[in-house]
Amino acid sequence: MADDRHGTDDVDDETLDAVAEALRTAETAVALTGAGVSTASGIPSFRGDDGIWERHDPADFHRRRLDADPAGFWADRLSLREAIYGDIDPEPNAAHEALAALEADGHLDAVLTQNVDGLHDAAGTDRVVELHGTHRRVVCDDCGHRRDAEPVFEAADEDGDLPPRCDCGGVYRPDVVLFGEPMPDVAMNEAQRLARDSDVFLAAGSSLSVQPASLLPKIAAEAGSTLVVINYDKTPRDAAAAHVLRADVTQVLPAIVERL
């Protein structure tokens, strides 16, 4: 986030201590992450001022578009990929690393993420539930074969032969949830179970405005979990939270790790 709201100056030590203590005593703790966790790695947000959807039409990436015009879908997908990543090779930032450290130290059981950039895996988190899929893979729409996305995108960009196809003849597609598609049952069922079973639920860097992922902290809070919201702006789940921290996730999460 390109503004001057950084650090933990607006979060008192008592709150940080309370969150750390809740994690220390929890049998099960889960984190949900959104775009705000990856912006410090140079990945732009999709929503909000100057977000990706301000410059690209979401309708271009609807399931119906892929079915009706796969070549056009892929041409726009190449443009979208350039807008998201450009010339950068994003790496995990301090927030990703802090969550990986919490898991490694036994204070976090899983990360549920709305992000598709793969940075939690890159940071070393073992149990990552990718609610929206991942940009790192493509999948054949016909036979279901999955492969690394990078060579497929590179060949499509260089050759201009669109859409890229699997050996079976089917069209490859990014292994992400497209507009007009339901969330994957396996990921959502696992996420909901973890939310219900959690003693602490951290919601970090998410506006909590996109369903059904935004329902996960509600499920957790209603089941008795200690809900912690870490986000610059207000969210629909703030009222249910035991702690709301208006600060930079790349500063707050490492500060919590230090206290543990």
Question: Which key phrases capture this entry?
Answer:
alpha/beta; 16% strand; 3-stranded antiparallel sheet; 6-stranded parallel sheet; 9 strands; 260 residues
Q: In what range is the share of β-strand residues? A: 15-25%
> Strand sequence of the main sheet, in spatial order?
3-2-1-7-8-9
Q: What oligomeric assembly is this protein in? A: single chain
Fraction of residues in helices?
A: 25-40%
Distance between the termini: 27 Å
What is the structural class? alpha/beta
With helices defined by DSSP (H or I, 4 residues minimum), what is the helix count?
10
Largest beta-sheet characterization: 6 strands, parallel
Rounded Rg = 19 Å
Order of helices and strands: HEHHHHEHEEEHEHEHEEH
Q: How much is the average pLDDT?
A: 91
Shape: elongated
